[in-house]
Amino acid sequence: MTMLSDIKFAFRTLVKNPKFTALTVFVMTTGLTLCIYMYSFIQGTLTAPLPFEQGKQIRKIDSIYNGMEYNGPSVRIHDFDDLKKRVQSYDVFDAYDDGIVNISTSDRAFRYIGHYVKASFFEISEAKPLLGRLLTDQDGEPGAESVVLIGESIWKSLFASDQNVLGKKLRVNSIQRTVVGVMPASYQFPGSGRVWLPFISSSKGVARADGDYVAVYGVLKKDVTDEQANSELKTIMAELEQTHPKLNSNRTAQIRTMQAALMGNGTPVIAFAMQLSVGFILLLACINVGNLLLSRAFEKSKEIAIRTALGAPRGKLISQMMWESTLISSISGILAILLAGLWLENSNKNLITTFPFEPPFWWNVALSESSVIAAMVIIGITALVTGLLPAYKATGEDVNSGLRDGTRGAQSKSVGRLSKLIVISEVVLSCALLLLSTGMVYSVHQQNQFDYGVEVEGYLTARIVLPEVEYDSNEKLLQYYQSMRTALQQERGVEAVSFIRSLPSENASSQNISIDGVDYGKKPQYPSVSSVTVAHNYFETMEVNLLEGRTFDLRDKLDSPLTAVVTQNFVKKHFKGNKVVGKRFKFIGNDKGWYTIIGVVNNVLHGQPTPANIEKQTVFVSLQQTPLRSISLVIKAAQEPEELRSMLDHISLSVERDAPAYNIKTLRASITERNSGMNFVSELFLIFSAASMVLAFSGIYGVMSNTIIQKTQEIGVRRALGANKGDIFTHFIKQSVKQLAIGLTIGVPLGIALVAMMEKTSLAQGSMILYIAVPTFISLVILLAVIYPVHRELKFEPCKALRSE
Amino acid sequence: MSALIKLTNVKKVFSTDEVETHALSDINLEIQKGEYISISGPSGCGKSTLLSLLGLLDTCSGGSYILNTHQAVDISTKQRAAIRNKEIGFVFQSFNLISDLTVSENVALPLTYRKDLNKQQRIEMVKEALEKVDMGHRTKHFPSQLSGGQQQRVAVARAIAGNPSIILADEPTGNLDSKNAELVMALLDKLHAEGKTICMVTHDPRGAKRAERIIEVFDGRVVSDSRVLQVKSEEAVA
């Protein structure tokens, strides 16, 4: 037979068995789709390379303070200057800053993310302007003309794509700036900025304690590894800690890729778990299809024996049988590529609409060339794995026994062993996978149900950043809050208005404190707390319970003694639950002085509901005493909060034309968005759980059913010897219990280990319920997979079973 | 002698959607305790179906069947299983030993379904049965490690282990060479000599002649029921 006739024969066989073909294609498509999707998703996001020549060498330098990793501008400018003088591992080592930029016209104001950058920033990111020029280091020098580089979208919306835009003026954060260039829409490095301004932060003439925090990046020298650079960084930071113990105590830094900095350090673990999960699913699919093909191959053992008797060489028989698996894998592969492509397209839309931030420009959630090549490799390997073993086993049978009827000896024993091995593998893989997936789904469900310590429904929130040039004093800031509150409270549907630095679910600022009367020794290790600045009516507006003392009121003013309200966690940790009203603490590295605790409230969660955040101690300080330019506004609505959106938009501009309210959304939506990444991962794992359940069930059922069909004659013999139906059920259940026990003995600890690994990312949570439910579910699957086929076999009289071949 | 088996007007009809096949019709048959019977006839005549009905491996479509005073028609599958276990020993053409079980486990198999035996009793019964067929030295072997003749001897041991009322043998030498076939037939002769009731289906005339009574089946009916002595006389005349 030629190869073409082999293919034709395999195709005809598949067409003749539509149920078998549909089942194998379904199983394989499920496994391959998940695998291709996950590979493409990870390649396109978590591990996507920066598309620059030096992309592989670009690193972000971030602070670690009190063990907490910070992203964004997190390095004090003075520390940056010291680092820049001493680091040896980089070709480029520089700083930039991020910030909210308000651009206002005569009748409107717009809010954008802006980057304050130096020339090197554009060099490493290979920036080329659409019009005009890039920013230079001279643009940031004192006395230089105020300039701005705008993105294509601003050019289109504010200047109607005017080719003569260069030299025109734009009011940016209350300052008139000259447009010197337009950047293409495709340029968004490192985030989703649309405005670029000269970097002006400096340590010159600024006390170290008052220094700005900046984002630091570097381009590693080609012969320097991350470990070497990290080691150098930590050594310098340790030296700075010695030199400036007050400000740098418990402060170090780390280098990360831009991708890791954006997604957090848990990303590699999540990516690993995702890849492992889809790997398990694909393996399950391969085992299932391989088993189905093996069963088919044994059904054809007589045909194979005839072909062998007629002189067909084994290699030829194997290659002929392999075409079947190749066709199944190819059909499944094509379907999987199409489905994965559609799914990726859908995910891309979801990422844009539901994520709290704009996805980085280097993300490409789509089927890329490398994904398709990887898919082809996966399909090829799958075809080989699923086809080769069954073909090899089936063609290894003794020709004589194949030609004789009803003789089953060593062959059936080896097949029996293989079936047992397959069932054990299926139990191990499905158990581990189900524990991991359900652990993640359970954890995210728990987190979504978490009580944030405030009322969540019925609030509209927004962010406001007041321009520095206009709001250069505390009095002006306080006046703004008062004007805004008064204006909003006059509107219908507004019940109360308050302000807070970080909304519940947003990360709060972490600061070290020193409690009055506590001796922290010569090498002090100060405790760290979350510090949140709130308006005096915040607790009442958000329905936070006062447990002791009082909350802020109009007595807490700029010139009155500093006061603070603390949470239950704070009292428990630092005062062992004793009375704390009247006790004092101060922030380290802040010369404001002692804060007197005036009250205790229930715990309020800032950040995602991870165990670390839940345990955090929080101190609230008064906005009246510490006014801020960047603040969140909270409106308690007497009606549907969304209906107040346009009113808020209008009022915010009428109170301050250069400070439009942005991120206007309900508190519930805000929390949901913040958890969207977690929910997205959880949804993926929900799909993995469903897929693993379907594959495990179909696989285990397939193997057990096939095993029992092969034992039809044995069932007949046992019944002839007097076994009743109960005896037969008991016999097969006992046999499967052994396989189940072995599978669970390996699968449960493996699953628990995977959950423990993921617990570090707070994305998975082990639970005794799951540790019982998952093995129980698998046991039920096995039970069902035994009972149904045995029941089917028992429908016939024993004489029929005895005659079966 | 009292009748161990009594079939009256037994029939067996196999029905498919379109065709009704009368495999057996009006079978009237009595088998006495201690008899050695062979059922013979051409392929497809219904002899194996008759053996299946006798062994309660299948149900009659009509008529009555009494086995050792038990009414064997219109009874539950559980009752049939219990009767098979206690009253009947099977020897099959293709041995039908379970490949995953050792020789002694195979022989013990029918005994494991009996609630009235303890482990020690089962061990002794297995040992006794294997010694009767001269296979006591192969207890730990698996079927695949035995020759065809040895496997059939183990199958005979399994059939007699529970001391059944009757041994039903379906072409017991069909898969054996002449030497092993002779050994197995000699074994059945020995069991008969010890008082066992044996009913054997065979189309081998030499095997059939070893029985003391030959029942011939043709087209689903008993066409001849004769003592071997008579057959021998007829052969002499011919």
Automatic annotation (TrEMBL), chain A:
Topology relative to the lipid bilayer, per the entry, is: Multi-pass membrane protein
Instruction: Give the family this protein belongs to, as stated in its UniProt record.
Output: Belongs to the ABC-4 integral membrane protein family.
Where's the ABC3 transporter permease C-terminal domain? 278-396, 687-787
Protein name listed in UniProt:
Duplicated orphan permease
**Can you say where in the cell this protein is located?**
Cell membrane
GO cellular component terms, semicolon-separated: plasma membrane
Top-level taxon of the source organism: Bacteria
Q: Which Pfam families match?
A: FtsX, MacB_PCD
Q: Which UniProt keywords apply?
A: Cell membrane, Membrane, Transmembrane, Transmembrane helix
Write out the transmembrane intervals: 20-42, 269-294, 326-344, 372-392, 421-442, 684-704, 740-757, 769-790
Please report the stretch or stretches of sequence annotated as the MacB-like periplasmic core domain: 21-235, 494-646
Q: Name one GO molecular function term.
A: transmembrane transporter activity
- Source species taxonomy: Bacteria, Pseudomonadati, Pseudomonadota, Gammaproteobacteria, Alteromonadales
TrEMBL record, chain B:
Q: List UniProt keywords, sorted A-Z.
A: ATP-binding, Nucleotide-binding, Transport
User: Which PROSITE patterns does this entry report, sorted A to Z?
Assistant: ABC_TRANSPORTER_1, ABC_TRANSPORTER_2
Q: Please give one Gene Ontology molecular function term for this protein.
A: ATP binding
Q: Name one GO cellular component term.
A: transmembrane transporter complex
Q: Does the keyword Transport apply?
A: yes
Pfam short name (any one)? ABC_tran
All copies of domain ABC transporter, residue ranges: 5-237
The record's annotation in InterPro entries points to: AAA+_ATPase, ABC_transporter-like_ATP-bd, ABC_transporter-like_CS, MacB-like_ATP-bd, P-loop_NTPase
Kindly give the PANTHER family that the UniProt entry links to this protein: CELL DIVISION ATP-BINDING PROTEIN FTSE, LIPOPROTEIN-RELEASING SYSTEM ATP-BINDING PROTEIN LOLD
Q: Which family does it belong to?
A: Belongs to the ABC transporter superfamily. Macrolide exporter (TC 3.A.1.122) family.
Please give the name of this protein.
Putative ABC transport system ATP-binding protein
Organism of provenance: Pseudoalteromonas denitrificans DSM 6059
Biological classification of the source: Bacteria, Pseudomonadati, Pseudomonadota, Gammaproteobacteria, Alteromonadales
